[in-house]
Amino acid sequence: MAQWDAFISYARSASTLEAQRLQTAIQTFAKPWYRLRMVRIFRDDSSMSANPALWSSIEQGLREARYLVVLLSQAAARSEYVANEIAWWLRHKDAASILLVHDDGTLAWDRQRNDFTANSDCVPAPLRGAFREEPRWTDLSWFDAPGSAGPADPRFAEKVADLAATIRGIPRDELVGDDVAQHKRAWRLAKVAIGALSLLLIASVVASIVAIAQRNQVQRQATALLARQLAVTADSLLGRDLRRAQLLAVQAYRTEANPDTRAALLRATLASPALRRFVSFAAPISALSASSDGRFVAVGLDNGEVHSWDVATAAPVARLTLAHRVLAVGISDDGQVVAAVDGTSTQVATAGGVSSLVTPAGASPELVAVNPAGTGIVICSDTATDRPVTLVDLAKRSQRTLTNTVEFGPYALQFVGNDEVVLSNPGAQRRTFPGFGLVQSGNFNYGNHETASRISGDGRFAAGTNNAAEVPVWSTMAERDPPARYAFVPMANATASALNHDGTVVAVADATGIHLATVQQVDSPAGFGHSVDPPRLFQGTTQVNPDGLVFLGTTNRFVAASGADLSLWNPDSVGRGSTSTAIDLPSGSMAAGSPSVALSSDGTTMAIRDGDRARLLVTAAPGRSGNLSLDYTPQAGYLAVPVWLDASTVLQVAAGSDGGTPGSALPDLPNGVVGWALGRPDQQVLAVATAPDAASVLVVGEAGHIERRDPRTGVVQSATQVIAPSDDKKWFDAAVDQSTATVALTPAFGSELVVVDAATGARRFTVAQPGDTVSRSLFADGSLWVRYNSGVIERRDPTTGALQRRLAARLSATGTGELAHASGVLAIPTDQGVTLYDTSSDATLGSIETPQGRDDRRRGSTLSADGSALVTVYESNGEPGSTGLAVTTTLAADELVGVACRTSGGSLTAADWTALIGPDVPADLTCR
């Protein structure tokens, strides 16, 4: 009789694809190559024979299964079959063996009622009240979300590992290790094959040519296998160890340059754009502090070493070495003065050298702070009977120790300016320096099981975490209850937290990454107990050391210590491989479209048409020198997307301000611009494309006029018209193929794409999908790419319209959906940013996130002619003083290697390779 390890319950109408992928992934996770599957999963479509007794077959599967996996969705909540399956399970088995997978809809737990919340619309009725305590569920709601890569997304393997570990009864870490081990075993098998073929080469001189060929083939296969293993391992580390992920991706590309390793390299450098760089040290980081202006960081290590780091540079500087593990460090604003304590001694490094400071006999110095000017130091020590405080005036070369001033050992010690110091303990004190007179005090006190955060830079606020989602923030100089502020941070096993300079932002590090949340006033509408914006999650490093988070100065930049690695983060960064510049691109009118951008052939200069289609802005692309700069508003009707005739000449076609003479030059043309009007006012120009011989341009208007004109004069060479099959007879979008012989037209009101002959207007074929509407199209790499409003993108034969491929992920865009292409790369704008697709391998390369604060801004993107860079321009937000933004992101593999190596803080070590890849360590692991 068949036995099942798990039974998948799901709604066919909504979750069939997810159920299929989940079944396959769980059955084959950490599977040796010679095994068909590791576990047996019952899913109705794949597991039932042709049995007319449907429920009997399902009931038998339920009876024989050890676990019930329920895919929670809005459809599942309404499904009679799902409800019956769950009800049967609860009658005959225990709810503890039910594994929940969140597919879609709203899902939350009400801790007061100890049940799912009333607005959890994806929970089948039998599950309500079924659990004695809050169950854990696996989140797959992102699986078919816009921009998701589905089963190719590294998050999918992480979620499958969670489920497979429970079903198989194996610890998750061990199971994930087994999965990676399969790659290692395959590599060892390849080496055995190489050795065997080498022996054959020696044994048979007659067959030497054949043997050499065979050996080379196996070596190529082994190299390809190693490159794939490196790329897969790099992807698996993106969310938790981005430093080593980048280094492994570089090694993968160096081992074999192919679309897969290039994609891994691109994903690694695009991941977590807020992460700026890593710095690695010889021992775990035990103490961390920053100057008040945020320019310098002091780092203490387990081995007693103390370093200072100018965050604008790449390398830290060794300053002093203590005998024991460093407990605390402090640093001045100029980075010259660094002080450190290790529980037995205190040392200070200045421009003049290193010296020791005297603390009371028998005292253990535990905390130290340096004022911004570097003229004062405060040391808090501990003895059997007292907590003495030592005040050091470096300017006067004097020090004194006070006793009986601090009742309990302080949790935090820091200067606020040069003349005041704050001690935070059960209560808080603000005192003068060097007099140490009491200025202000408070009764603030941490609660049970709360771990103290770093207090705000101004010394006014402190927070504590105990793994609850609501983080209380107290005023240090007031009563403890109620807290002055709150932040909402869902967390799991938090290890460190910190407040920014004024207590308005809190950072919390936990097992999933680093959360940044806005701190709310308790009485604000978005305060404690109310709905608040979710915190931003920054991934790329986990296991942040205790007290290993520090904000830098008055910015929201911060550093995080994880083991021996220090990482620098800037929440407003556009990415490690990106360069940005402010541009004058105001927000267009409500009826306006998105801005468009075109790059010169050398990739140095960008021509931007604003969203109102009235202005041409030409300037250097970010990070490039540029060879033309101008700002032109011709008052000549709607402007077309600009076209570069050469590296320093832009063609600007306009509809015209009146009937005029077709082809008449635009007024007051600046140097570097060729421009003429069509003589069709109030009509938009949908496309302008240069012929391969550059002797003509094809111009397509919204009324269906297709004209071939002289690019310099605008004189018409030939013309035809295609009337749109819609009430207003207008077209919304047009795409021209590389030969300018074919045009694909999208109607303003209609669902089909019409492909016509550019010379005659004769219809060649149409493309349509029932229930969907074509939004954009593009001719590229011998195919016609069709984008639908639903997010579906198809690759079709450009001569017949036959479907060649449908992209796996749905890539939706509520704003511009204009596709761009160059050198085998397709740029697909989405609501989250831009997804890059390799047209030769038909694989997603990666995604570029929209910069912070630009999510709702209209934008336009294009690729350089050689596909080495993506340029995106964003409108301003319309507020006074706001500007537009232009961002250049490098896609060139050699530049990506440089970015990864510069920001990873070193190279892979032999220990890294052995732990992640296997025992055969290459002789050269240098990242370069």
UniProtKB/TrEMBL annotation:
SUPFAM superfamilies: DPP6 N-terminal domain-like (SSF82171), Quinoprotein alcohol dehydrogenase-like (SSF50998), Toll/Interleukin receptor TIR domain (SSF52200). The chain crosses the membrane at residues 192-213. InterPro entries: Quinoprotein_ADH-like_sf, ThsB__TIR-like_domain, TIR_dom, Toll_tir_struct_dom_sf, WD40/YVTN_repeat-like_dom_sf. Residues 3-147 form the TIR domain. GO terms for biological process: signal transduction. It holds the Pfam family ThsB_TIR. Coiled coil: none annotated. Keywords: Membrane, Transmembrane, Transmembrane helix. This is TIR domain-containing protein.
